Amino acid sequence: MIVHQASAVVIDGRALLIEGPPGSGKSSLALALIDRGAILLGDDGVVLSAPDGRLCAAPHPNTAGLIEVRNLGILPFPHAGPDPVPVALVVVLDRQAPRFVEAAQTVLRGGWPVPLLHLWPESQALPLRAELALRHHGLV
After folding, report:
1. What is the DSSP annotation of the chain?
2. Average pLDDT of 43-72?
3. Is 85 exposed, middle or buried (0-12, 13-18, 19+ CB in 10 A)?
4. Of 115, 138, 134, which Cα lies nearest the Cα of 29?
5. pLDDT per residue over 68-82, tens digit each?
6. How far is Cα 87 from Cα 114, in angstroms, rounded to an integer?
7. Are 19 and 97 in contact (CB under 8 A)?
8. Structural domains in the chain (count)
9. 139 Cβ partners below 8 Å, 6+ apart?
10. Could you tell me the residue range of the domain that residue 90 belongs to?
11. What is the C-alpha separation between 74 and 93, in angstroms, rounded?
12. What residues contact 44, with CB distance under 8 A and at least 6 apart?
């Protein structure tokens, strides 16, 4: 098991890891996706493992069910877990994200390969783009 700094939500039984530098909007994207029906998995930290040879994420026990909502503080939310959820995609919030991509990159997380896309964080359509990224580039 490895503690990994990322926020994460569950959409249709698959985990979406949200990475980026501090202040890039990881928690805000997670919150927007929760508003669209996703389930909180972890905010700013998850536990990675590969129980059946596939990368999975679970809530960190110290922060399970908590998310930082800017200007309001750390608030409790319904959350997934404690069972690990298969990781389908990593999105990195990046102001230098390319405008077009033909395919997701592959990155290692916890020693396991997973698709990765960079998303421009300053868009009202960011939650929709994250869902589309998961649908078109995420592992099944």
Report:
1. -EEE--EEEEETTEEEEEE-STTSSHHHHHHHHHHTT-EEEESS-EEEE-TTSS-EEEE-TTTTTEEEETTTEEEE--B--SS-EEEEEEEEE-TT--S--SS-EEEEETTEEEEEEEE-SS-TTHHHHHHHHHHHHS--
2. 95
3. buried
4. 134
5. 999 999 999 999 989
6. 7
7. no
8. 1
9. 14, 86, 87, 88, 89, 114, 115
10. 2-137
11. 21
12. 5, 6, 7, 26, 27, 63, 68
32-41: pLDDT as tens digits: 999 999 999 9
Tokens 């997670």 locate to 30
Residue 52 identity: D
With tokens 């996703």, the residue in question is: 38
Residue 94 sits in a domain whose CATH number is 3.40.50.300
